[in-house]
Amino acid sequence: MAITNKSEIKLSIELDENRVPEKLMWTAIEGGIQEEECKAFMLSVWDGNEKSTKCIELWTKEMPVDEMKVFFHQTLTSMTETFQRATGDEKMSATMKDFCDYFAEKLQLKL
Q1: How far apart are CA 108 and CA 79, in angstroms?
Q2: What is the pTM of this model?
Q3: First vs last Cα of the chain: how many Å apart?
Q4: Could you tell me which residues come within 8 angstroms of residue 76 by beta carbon, excluding any fewer than 6 positions away?
Q5: Cα separation of 55 and 46, whole Å?
Q6: For 31, which DSSP code?
Q7: In this predicted structure, what is the pLDDT of residue 26?
């Protein structure tokens, strides 16, 4: 029998009386993260049976709009890098990078 390893990532959300996130915490023991607070997260998973993406996007009431813009830019940039590694599609990756640069320029993000 093959030995299997298991790794767990835990998300914890504290909600106010209107079910709006007040506090977001995450744990990834293997990565050395224990109940670390964050202001926002996006999680996408691929459902192979339905051939569709399931998403959860949450942010706290305290997440400033200027930080949300930077968060989106960094997420798009990371997705671009992941797309390139996963597909090897250099042409589309370059197009996506151009969009990330355009996004940052239009939002006047200081990078």
Answers
A1: 20
A2: 0.88
A3: 50
A4: 96, 99, 100, 103
A5: 9
A6: G
A7: 97
Cβ atoms 80, 97 nearer than 8 A: yes
Evaluated on CA atoms 86, 92, 97, 101, the torsion sign reads negative
The answer, yes or no, to whether residue 1 has pLDDT greater than 90, is no
**pLDDT per residue over 3-42, tens digit each?**
888 899 999 999 999 999 999 999 999 999 999 999 999 9
DSSP E strand boundaries for 1-111: 10-15, 21-28, 33-38, 40-47, 52-59
Residue 40 placed within a domain = yes
53 and 68 assigned to the same domain: no
- Residue 24: domain span: 8-62
Other C-beta atoms within 10 Å of 109: how many? Answer: 14
